[in-house]
Fold these 3 entries.
Entry 1:
Amino acid sequence: MKNVDHWLPPNINCAYQVFHIDEYAETVHNDHAFQALPQSLQGASRARKASFRAGRACATQALTAGAALHTSIEHGSNGLPYWPVGWAGSISHALVGQIGIAIAVVVRKQHAFAIAVDCEPIFESTHASEISPLIASVTELRLGERLGYSHTVWLTMVYSLKETLYKLLYAHVRCFMPFEAAELLSFDTQTGQACLMLSRDWGDLTVGQRYWLQTRTVRVEEIGECVLSFGLEQAETDISSN
């Protein structure tokens, strides 16, 4: 997954890594990038521990690149990271067998109120068929067919885009929503821009509101084809200056 930084907007810092569970899960690091596991993960699987540590390491690397040097990332009771004051960030990780991909993006809040990223390996055919009714409507599936995408790639894209939207809006609603709470209206195959609309009220966010996210397929070393999605909610100062 090369040149991700060239795809992201200015002022965004990104870091990612491919990791092997057996090399990562139980290793004790003295580096500040590897924090102690939260209590909720003490009894977790090796895969879950490795994913957590890899994600936090990426977040620390991204913050360091953004000049928030040696800033630790605290974690709350809900397992979500507490970002340093003045920063917004997002972490995503996924596993394929014993190999994982972790990615983190951060931005100063003077540039964006919220940011979200999601990375998903392309679903296997059987898995896609099983979960398709839970993720995408008939209308959304037909849109993918018209655009010429395979069922597995398109369903992974719909899933990743909705995951990204829900992460982006969490700062407002403080809860996660079911997949039918948003609808993918359109997708530009040239730019990778997707338009999603809320299909129900989310707290003070009303049905019909639209959001524009970015997604594309990328090749990840040792894992294969993945979908990478990204969303950004601009700070009010940035919006007013446009």
Note: Residues 85 and 175 are 21 Å apart (CA to CA).
Entry 2:
Amino acid sequence: MSGSEHVVDFAHIATIFRHLGLSLDPAECHGCLCGLLCATDAVQGAAWVNQVLAGKLGLPEPGAAPHQNGAEGEERTALLILYKETAGQLDDPNYGFSPLLPDDEQPLRQRVEALSRWCQGYLLGLGLGGVQEQSGLSGESHEVMRDFVEISRLGHGEDGENEEDEAAFAEIVEYVRMAVLLVYEELRPLRAARPPGAPVH
């Protein structure tokens, strides 16, 4: 469930952001994208890449002019691959989705903080995509959203790491992974039934 399972991994995206001088966090950015893709069918890959290169999170305007920001073709392509990979994973019948996080070789503190930011981004993406608190979602999905709020507040106060901490973190990541797929499936008919950007009621 680490970023290493992605064709374009966390470290690659972080390098792109640093090179372009973007203040965006890769985990939060990916979480926001996933929330948007769960909430609405209005997110187009090229427009999302333009939004990211402009240093913004949120629902991009259709047909927005490309934002260069010094980006080279390879960097733009990497972000577009991330978009396509993420959309494909959410639709994968084999549950191939995973959040974009630092790989398992990184300190646990860093991975916990990244997961916290990922969940913050996901909740932001849902809201920007039109999913409101009173959205007609099932009790299970409401519970997911409450849990994500709690995960977004996670911290890792100790410098030491042990097998129990690693196991607990792996369980939380797995929960996040499957919870996103649950919400994505539940919102599928709602995405199809409403105009892009309209609130879910």
Note: Residues 1-5 have pLDDT under 50 and may be disordered.
Entry 3:
Amino acid sequence: MLEEMVKVPGLDGEKMGKSDAENAIGIDMDKDVILARYLSRGVTDKGRTRRNDPGNPWACRAVYPVHELVTDGEVVNRKIARQCAEAAIGCRDCKQLLVDNIGKILEPFQERRKELADQDGLVREILHEGGLKARKIIMPTIEEIADKMGIVTY
């Protein structure tokens, strides 16, 4: 059971969800598309108007919190935050680093998806086998519920 839920910010800095496709990053998106989305819609520090202005990474509601989720290592995250605060990197640089790290995570899934794309029979077989296993697990509960509700199956 999850003890603590993780909120993944969307491009607008609010919760990312699949119901608003324009606010989300898809698992099958190319890095160039992800970067274009972050560059055009990713909310950053509104107080930072020029590249050489010091920034506040925690004011970047759509960028820095995602770095904390996907960028490998606390030391790297602190370095990015420090560079932002010192104006050593700009928002575009920060977004590029973020997209590179998102790409590292998505790449294995995208490669596997490409491998399975032409194997429709295998995918159907895996889903069928999974369904059979799930039925074995859930049948006692379904039978108990049906019995309590007085539902008779023939």
Note: The chain has a mean pLDDT of 90.
